[in-house]
Amino acid sequence: MKKMALHWQVIIALVLGVIYAVSIVYNADVNGTKKGIQFTADYIAPFGEIFVRVLKLIAVPMVLFSIIAGIGSLKNIKQLGRVGVKTLLIYVGTTVSAILVGLLFVNAIKPGQFPSQDSRIEKRIEYELWLTATPGAPRLDKVSMLTDSNYAAKVAQVKNRIATVVIDSDTQDKLDKAAAEKQKGPLYKFIDIFPSNIVNAVSDKDGKTNMLQVIFFALFFGVMLVKLPKKHGQPVRKVINGLNEVFIAMINAVIRMMPIFVFALMAGSLVKSAGDNLEKLKEQLVFLGHYSWVLVVALFVVAFVYYPLLIHFFAKRVTIKQFLKGIREAQITAFSTSSSMATLPVTMDCVNHNLHVPKPISSFVLPIGATVNMDGTSTYQAVAVVAMAQFHMIDLDFTQQMLIVLTATLASIGAAAVPSAGLVLMIVVLESVGLNPAWIAIILPVDRILDMCRTVVNVTGDATVSSIVASTENVEV
Fold this sequence. Notes:
Blueprint: H1 6-31, H2 35-72, H3 77-109, H4 117-133, H5 151-164, H6 169-182, H7 188-191, H8 198-202, H9 211-227, H10 230-256, H11 258-274, H12 278-285, H13 290-314, H14 320-326, H15 328-337, H16 340-353, H17 359-372, H18 375-391, H19 398-412, H20 421-432, H21 440-443, H22 447-471
C-alpha cells in the first residue's frame, strides 16, 4: 500500500487538532469540567513546544553554516555582490507590492465601517479623548459630531467607561517593548547589525537570537573564506559543508515526525487560548469580524495569485503548479508554527529539492528573507491600521496611507521571525499616522490565527524570491 504523502498527514493532523480542541473546550463550557483542559496543558501541548524548540535549535546553526557554505561555493566576490543587491531589491519590491494589495482590499471593502453607527461614534469619541490626553499626538482630520443631539451624554459615558478600563498584560508588554525601541535612536537598527560577540548574537542571556547579527557574521566569514588561497580555504569549506549536511539530516529526521508534533501544537495552542470559553474559540476558528476575512483574502491573493504570477513571468526553472506543490510542506509548517525562522529548515528543503534552486542561492537568499522579508506581516499591518481607523471614523488620506507603506516596509526589516512579532511593529505604524497604539488590544483576540496566515505569506515570498534569483544566475543545482 502506497504511503500517504507527508503534507496530507500534516493537514489531517491539523484538522484533528482543531476537532480535539473544540471537543475539549465544548465539554468545559457546557459541562463545566476542566479535566480535559488540564490534560491538554500537561500532556499534549508540551510536544508542540518541543517541535518549535527543535526547529529553532536547528534553524540558527543552519542559517550560519548554510550562508557560509553558499558564499563559499560562489565563484567570486562579484557574483556575491550581484546576488546580494538583486535579492534585497526584489525583497523590498515584493514587500511594497504586498502592502499595496492589502490597502486595495481594505479601502475597497472598508471592514471598519460595518459596525453600527452608534458604536463607531463611541470609538471616535474615544479617539478624541485620547488626543486631548496625549500631548504631542499628531491631530488628524477633525470630524465634527456636535450635530448629534446625544453627543454630550455619549462623551460622559465614554469617559466613565475609559476610566474603568485596565490594559491587559499582553497589550501593555507590547506597548513597553515599542516604547523601548523608540528610545534607542534612529540608527539603532543599523548599529544592531554588527555583533560584538557572536555567542551573544546566537543566544543572549534571555535566550533570544539576533538573526541580523548571525547573518552579518556568516556573510563576513563567507566572504573571507572566498578570498583565502585555495590551500587554506578548502579544508574549512569541507568542514562547513559537512556541518551543513548534518543539520540537513537533522531537519529531515524532524520532518518525518511532523504530523504528531503539529497535532499537539494545534490542539495545545487552541485550548490554551480559549480556555473554557467556547465563544472565544469560535472567534479564532472562523476569523470573526470583517477585518479578519478581509485580511485573510488579501493574504491569500498575495500568496496564491501575486507570487505565482511572479514565478510565471520571472522564474524559468519552475512552473506555477510545480511551485505551489513544491512549497506546500513549508506553508503547512509556517501555518503551524507562526514562525518564519522555525520554518526555515523546511523551506530550504522544499526549495532545494522541489523547486530545484541551487544550494548556493537558497543558502544565501532564504536566511536573509526569513529575517528581512515579512510581506505577510507588512500586509497585515496596513490592513489592520486602516481598518481600525475606519472603525474610529477616521479617513486616512493618500499621503497618510503612503506613509503606512513606508513605515510598514522599514519596520518589517529585521523583525523577529517569531509568533506575534508584528503586533509590536504595528505600534510603530499606528504612531506614524497619529493613531492610538493601544488599539492593538482590539485585534489581539484573533491575532494568533491571523499570525499563522501571514507567516504562510512570509515563507511563500521567500521561496518566490529565491526562485527568481536562481533563474537569473548561472549556478548549478
